[in-house]
Amino acid sequence: MGDDAGKVQVDLAPESRRYEIHVDDKPAGYVGYHRYGDEIAFLHTEVNSDFEGMGLGSKLARHVLDDAAEHDMKVLPYCPFISGWIGKHPEYTELVPEERRPQFHL
Predict the structure, then answer these.
(1) Against a cut of 0.85, is the pTM above it?
(2) Whole-number pLDDT of residue 6
(3) Rg (the chain; Cα; Å)
(4) How many angstroms separate the CA atoms of 65 and 9, rounded?
(5) Hey, which bits of the chain come out as E strands?
């Protein structure tokens, strides 16, 4: 995905309730989530300090939101990073139920 980052892969780890990102097979970060019915709440995003500045948070955000869209899930971005990322990429705002958008400043 980027020459700086090496081989980047995002995997769903349902047993841990998170999406995990790896760089060259090394754990680099994750987005924690909770799923209920047709809703997915993103709770926390973390990128390990060794991998900061490589755009991995953005790669994670795009991946989890694209995955939610692909599975017709409604997104509740409790994680400030995910909410802020949606704010900068308004094409993803429609994933958040309209009546809930003010709660997430969207």
Answers:
(1) yes
(2) 80
(3) 13
(4) 15
(5) 8-13, 18-23, 26-36, 39-47, 74-77
Please check whether residue 17 is in contact with residue 34, taking contact to mean a CB–CB distance below 8 angstroms. Answer: yes
- Whether residue 3 has pLDDT greater than 90: no
- What's the pLDDT at 1? 39
For domain 8-104, give the CATH superfamily: Gcn5-related N-acetyltransferase (GNAT) (3.40.630.30)
User: On the CB side of 74, how many CA atoms lie within 13 Å of its CA?
Assistant: 11
C-alpha distances out from residue 82 to 24, 25, 71, 77, Å: 24, 24, 18, 6
pLDDT, one tens digit per residue, over 36-95 is 999 999 999 999 999 999 999 999 999 999 999 999 999 999 999 999 999 999 999 999
Residues 31-55, buried b or exposed e (16+ Cβ, 10 A)?
bbbeeeeeebbbbebbbeeebeebb
Token pair 């995002």 in the structure block, residue: 10
Which amino acid would we find at residue 106?
L
- Smallest CA-to-CA distance from 79 within 59, 50, 104, 49 is with 104
